[in-house]
Amino acid sequence: INAEYMGLAQCQNPTDNASMRGRSAESNRMNARSNLFGGGPQQRPKSQTGRVDDQEDTMLKENEDELALLQDKVGSIKQVAIEMQDEVRIHNKLLDSMESQFDMAAHSLKATMGRLTNMMAHGGSKHMCLLVLFVFGVLVMLYWLMKSKK
Questions:
Q1: What does the pLDDT read at residue 29?
Q2: Which tens digits make up the pLDDT trace of 12-38?
Q3: Which of 11, 81, 105, 133 might form a disulfide with 16, Cβ 3.0–4.6 angstroms?
């Protein structure tokens, strides 16, 4: 404050004195406010400076270790996500293949039903009797095969 007072005394122009006083009061107010709210210069006692620096170094090292651990975890999660993406692609291909096979089977069944309907429409009672006997024979043969394997 003495240096500011001396600076004011050295000003020759009265308007310069007023502007200097305004700037000086404003800077004092800002310094008081920043010191009050922690924004001002922080001076540590000389006896604690070494200890505070050691604490800061320890905290920085811990932060770096935690960051390295976090980076490893992020890397492993990324690898899992890539593997999941590969699995999804494989399963999508499998599902597409199954869909085309089911479409072919549905088309085949539809064609077979159309032929059966056509056969019934043309009065195939003789054909129907042969069909029923054939199905019955196949079922008996399957039963006999299953029974003989036990």
A1: 58
A2: 444 444 444 555 556 665 565 555 555
A3: 11
Cα–Cα dist 69/89, whole Å: 31
In the chain, what is the greatest distance between 2 CA atoms, to the nearest angstrom?
Answer: 133
Tokens of 19: 């502007």
Q: How many helices (H) and strands (E) does the chain have?
A: 4, 0
* Inter-residue contact 128 to 120 (CB < 8 Å): yes
DSSP string, 41-80: -----HHHHHHHHHHHHHHHHHHHHHHHHHHHHHHHHHHH
Lowest mean pLDDT among 97-106, 115-124, 133-142: 115-124
Dihedral (CA of 111, 114, 118, 119) sign: positive
Please say whether the beta carbons of 91 and 83 come within 8 A: no
Q: Are 17 and 11 in contact (CB under 8 A)?
A: yes
> Crossing angle for the helix pair 46-121 and 125-149, nearest 10 degrees?
130
Helix (H, G, I), strand (E, B) or coil at 88: helix
